[in-house]
Amino acid sequence: MDEKPKIFIVEDEKHIARFLQLDLEKEGFETAIEKNGKRAYERIIQEKYDLVLLDVMLPEMDGMEICKRVRQISDIPIIMLTARDEVKDKVEGLELGADDYVTKPFAFEEVLARIRGILRRRNEEPRQEENRLIVGGVILYPDRYEVRVNGEFIELTHKEFELLQYLVENKPNVLSRDQILQKVWGYDFFGNTNVVDVYISYLRSKIDDKFNEKHIKTIRGVGYACRD
Question: What's the pTM?
Fold first, then answer.
């Protein structure tokens, strides 16, 4: 049996969100709702949805900023929902990467038609899911040695990337310094094990400290672990 498409409704007006949820579920969709912009962005990059209905005016992070950040890391379909009918607002949303734009007040039938149209076109497009690893707001793309934190590109050296990848691949398990040395630096490495501590500090300064993410944990007397 085919899975139901899952629609993420990002809307801080409770009655609109509930109205969309009830009608979409009647039409055979699964739904999830989020009213906080910052939390919505985190959920988009961490969870799996088929399409996002994204309001513009949201607390903590507005829809335009969410769309901009999401487009740096994902091609998930986005339909903007807004009470503003200015042409410049529509243009801005579309230029940031939104797939469509609906102005409030809207008829549900219009929203439904646009959702179905976008999903139909998406299903007709051959595409391959990109390999990625996620911990909190940190996303690693192993195939292209790229890391983004909250949508922002982070420049890492080859060894820094391999160390971070090894930690994330094994989250939340604790890895000893010897395990890390063998995996990242190789069995023939004859240097000091302090090199692990040094590179952990590099990663913390570029990710944990800069973005206040705090994902790389020191387990005293054992080693290091990466955790959400």
Answer: 0.65
